[in-house]
Amino acid sequence: MNLGDHLPLLAIILPLLAAPVCVLIGRAGAAWLIALTSSVLSLAAAAALLQGVVQERTVSYQLGGWAPPWGIELRVDLLGAYVLLIVCAMAAMVMAYARRSVIREVEAALIPAFYAALLLVFAGLAGITVTGDAFNLFVFLEISSLASYALISMGRDRRAVSAAFQYLVMGSIGATFILIGIGFLYLMTGTLNMQDLAQRLPAVSDTRTVRAGFAFLTVGIGLKLALFPLHLWLPNAYAYAPSVVSALLAATATKVAVYALLRFIIDVFGADFSLGDMPLNLLLILLGSLGILVASLVAVYQDNVKRMLAYSSVAQVGYMVLGIGLASAAGVSAAILHLFNHALMKGALFLALGAVAYQMGRVRLKDFAGLGRSMPWTMAAIVVSGLSLIGVPGTAGFISKWYLVLAILEQDLWPLAMLVLVGSILALLYMGRLVEAAYFQHPEKNTVVPREAPLSLLLPLWVLATANLYFGLFTDLNVGIAQQASSQLLEGRP
């Protein structure tokens, strides 16, 4: 075995091992360097793994020498490798950005533990994408969730503690539902390996136990991905967490939950059962549509820009589940594509807000007055990423919305196509308020005019902002992977 054979394990073991080292060293600078190094190495492993999966289709890694389904398996197909690359890339960008931002927003004594928790979130999310075992998916989900609660509570705003507690309560309910659902499946099949589950479930799919397990899993994952109306934990969690935490969670956590939803309802239960026998497709279309409309409307009236983007994230999740609810290869590929593109948008936007918070200490809408002149590079990144969020042609956001509309029109669902257009108009309204404040308003008298953010904050921010333009202009690779991953999941379903 060479090093390349261990890529699925390396992607998760590097941050997992680096986390306690950060605490043991106990120095902020060294902890940051360890976190950054492990994230970059994991990104390299994820990129190599994606390349291997594209060539070899699926990679199976057996832990402990026990063959699945008896032993624990790491199993990476194209969708898993794609989402793993997103998680590792965003983690690397956030770690590169974090050094100066964390010093400003987290108490000095807590910084080594902060980086350790950040690495645990990263390791947990990466683990979800590579595990082939249903129970271990739950374990990795809880690793990332528990570390997230701690990270959110480290925000300097006193409301961060209550936001973390609300997230803990809602997250624990979601985790309990997921665990009950997995338990029901094990009760009926005697296995936890997801590929083995997929083979055994059709024989018992008509039983109440399997249907109850399906319902518990759907609701539990719905809580984790902030599916409307199960999203109540998300706005405060994003608004009061330290900036790097908001950026990492917004760019990865809900995306990995969407991946888990796809993995269970299509790969484990099968699309015919989940989106045919069970009326989940209609429910996803309904809740996704309501999420797009209601969350976008609420975002328009927010004064705290972090909360504005948090509600925007709920709306963007709506686009993804709407695509899944269409129950077609085109709809699922549009959802997968938007999963990637939304990570780029929200990662860039929240890093930009972190740069504003670094210079001003707050991110209320009125604090953006005049920032287009005093922080031109930061605000330009917000404009680029905001255009992608709206779905302007030439940006990544346009591409995924275009493919979603095509999937909708393929089924002659014109009202849903109009809804996507309305969602984009509402995004134009709330992003327009931000741009108006920055470029067309003047700061209040006696307000200290901030300088541009440091280069160490601007570089990761502009890598993501540029990616929003690149993947809006050069689409073959991104669209091709999303469509191929969708076809693999649905096995030729039209």
Structure characterization notes:
The protein is mainly α. The chain has a domain at 279-494. It is built from 20 helices and two strands. The protein has helices spanning 7-25, 28-56, 78-105, 111-130, 134-153, 159-189, 194-204, 208-224, 234-240, 243-268, 271-277, 280-300, 305-325, 329-360, 371-374, 376-390, 396-410, 414-440, 455-473, 476-490, and strands at residues 59-62, 73-76. Strands 1-2 form a two-stranded antiparallel sheet. Helix 12 (280-300) packs parallel to helix 18 (414-440) and helix 14 runs antiparallel to helix 19. The two termini are 39 Å apart. The mean pLDDT is 86.
Quick gist of this model?
By secondary structure, the chain is an all-alpha fold. It has 20 helices and two strands. The chain is 78% helix and 2% strand.
Q: Keywords for this structure?
A:
2 strands; 78% helix; two-stranded antiparallel sheet; mainly alpha; 20 helices; 494 residues
Write the layout of secondary structure elements.
Elements (H helix, E strand, L loop, with lengths): L6 H19 L2 H29 L2 E4 L10 E4 L1 H28 L5 H20 L3 H20 L5 H31 L4 H11 L3 H17 L9 H7 L2 H26 L2 H7 L2 H21 L4 H21 L3 H32 L10 H4 L1 H15 L5 H15 L3 H27 L14 H19 L2 H15 L4
Antiparallel strand pairs: 1-2
Helix pairs in contact: 1-2, 1-4, 2-3, 2-4, 3-4, 3-10, 3-14, 3-19, 4-5, 4-10, 5-6, 5-10, 6-7, 6-8, 6-9, 8-10, 9-10, 9-13, 10-13, 10-14, 12-13, 12-18, 13-14, 13-18, 14-16, 14-17, 14-19, 14-20, 16-18, 16-19, 17-18, 17-19
